[in-house]
Amino acid sequence: MNSSPSQQTLRVFLVEDTIPIRQRMAARFGAIDGVEIVGEAEESDAALAGIDATGTDVVVADFRLTGGTGMELLQSIARSTSPVITIVLTNHSSAGFRQACLAAGAQYFFDKTSEFDLACNTIKRIAHERSARGLNYTGEHHV
């Protein structure tokens, strides 16, 4: 965690089945001021349990996961009563995948290869807005 006591920490949960990529995500996102990585998983069921247990604010998930896709995860989060911002960060970034993820409830969708820095900047902005407002930030649809 890299936040001062006066800030409300943005709790981020990572869902990625490739360990080196998940480690890179944890290092980059965790270095953002006001962000704490509260958990990691490589498949949907473990992710849902972790998200519920940690009071996650933001989920960053790949489209392809161990034993399935991130679609089930997105749909389950969208049905949840807890406000969670979902960000898809994937190499499967065709227009069809993008539209399917947004329709399933993702607020943001980024290509791992070409938009990783944009995903970092988005998390940084959400953390800053959360800290500035002192309350939960609700995301909007962005493509």
UniProtKB/TrEMBL annotation:
It is an enzyme of class 3 (hydrolase). The modification 4-aspartylphosphate is found at D62. SMART domains: REC. Residues 11-127 form the Response regulatory domain. Signal peptide: none annotated. GO terms for molecular function: protein-glutamine glutaminase activity. Its EC number is 3.5.1.44. CDD domains: REC_NarL-like. It holds the Pfam family Response_reg. SUPFAM superfamilies: CheY-like. Keywords: DNA-binding, Hydrolase, Phosphoprotein. This is Protein-glutamate methylesterase/protein-glutamine glutaminase. It comes from Paraburkholderia nemoris.
